[in-house]
Amino acid sequence: METVGNSEAAMDRILICILQHRNPNYTVTAFLHLFAALRDDDELRRKCKILLACTSRRSPELLALERIFGSECDVEVFETIGSYPEKLRSVVNKYPPEQYQFFVKHDEDILVSRNTWHSFLRSAPAALGDPSNLAATVNLSTGIPSWMDFADRFLHPDERDSLQSMLNHERVPERLWGMNFEMVSRYVARRKGAWDESAYWRFMNAQGAYSKGVHPVRIYLAYGQLLNEAILRRYADFQTAAVSDRFTRVTDRYLCNSFFMIRYPTYTSFMNEDMLHDAKDGYGEVAMNRYREIHDLAFCFLQGSLGVHILYNTTYMQLTQGPRRINGLRYEYECLTRYLALVRQWLAERGETRAHQIPLAEPTPRERRAMRNWHVVFPAALYVLSGVKRQFRNALIGLWKDTWPILSATRSRIVSCDR
Q1: Architecture in CATH for domain 2-152+243-305
Q2: N or C: at which end does the chain have fewer Cβ atoms within 10 angstroms?
Q3: pTM of the model
Q4: In terms of C-beta distances under 8 Å and separation of at least 24 residues, what long-range contacts does 232-239 make, across chains too?
Q5: 354 φ, ψ to 5°?
Q6: CB within 8 Å of 34: residues ≥ 6 apart
Q7: What are the average pLDDT values for consecutive 10-residue runs of the chain, which has 419 residues?
């Protein structure tokens, strides 16, 4: 790892794309965290265009946001349809790279602190002026590989001890996202002593697979719970913690963050390269990591930065946590509601009351059904049967994959598209 500094360079235009996938309240909450950084900086507001890429139809909540804040920020609601890559291509087609030098890809369930946003928008363009740096990002709570930097920066010692204790006894599934992780599962099961993050990544980097994003902090609900509850308890500290303007260059880790800044022409080029079309993860994650590796580039992490990734999509299937029964979708939405209330209060205490004028969306009937525990009863049964022969267990998994679309026609809308 290497540290790079940033002088206050002339800032070029930045296109910030917040990708909506589910309830509009996610996008509203993400925008308000960004606005907290822009409201006091006229220069940054002039440099940034905020695109709210909404799904299927224009929501009244996002249209109200556009109307209320549009006179102060360059914010636009833009309707996009289709898969994750198709939405991004729609954005690129409407806003070609000739208009913007930098692009921020921002999934709706990522909330970045006020001070992190401000330092990031001012410092990242200079870091990306070095052609050996592919993308700049921040330390996300459940982000891979940045969760440990977030934990070291924000968690109290007892909270870090709890997290480490969970990792010391953790396992990784053999199959996930339709991919085979048997080698990783065996490595984690056979390791001795305390969890060693550096050793884990040395092992992962030695694997030939393109996708290397499997990690306990990413895929299990308990870690998201611990981190979210700590942030919610100390939300004011999260917003106001000091952040550096320097970046750490990383060349030996796989990046799963669905929040980063990149040179816009570079992003559009690697999205369309034929040699990357076999990286069929559906989210651009594998393609971006392959591009970094092929061209011997670096990812840059803003030092001291803080951001929340509420939960990853794999946690939605985690029904059992010890004796408790938890629906990950419902827990995530409850966390979102709490974050939204806190950021509105935080802004109001600083004289910004317009956030309360944005109407909030109620969960749709389909969303409410998806938050019920019966949607994950079958995966819980698989958990109970985890000791049976692998062939039988895989047969049950295959059956579940066939029946899940029938049991929940809303999965494509509700389940988070972030990876």
Answers
A1: Alpha-Beta Complex (3.90)
A2: N
A3: 0.84
A4: 232/335, 232/338, 232/339, 232/342, 234/154, 235/339, 235/342, 235/346, 236/346, 237/154, 238/113, 238/154, 238/306, 238/308, 239/36, 239/113, 239/114, 239/115, 239/346
A5: -65, -20
A6: 16, 18, 50, 112, 117
A7: 53 89 94 97 95 82 95 92 79 88 96 98 97 97 94 97 92 79 86 90 83 84 93 98 97 91 89 56 78 93 97 62 67 95 98 95 84 55 45 54 46 38
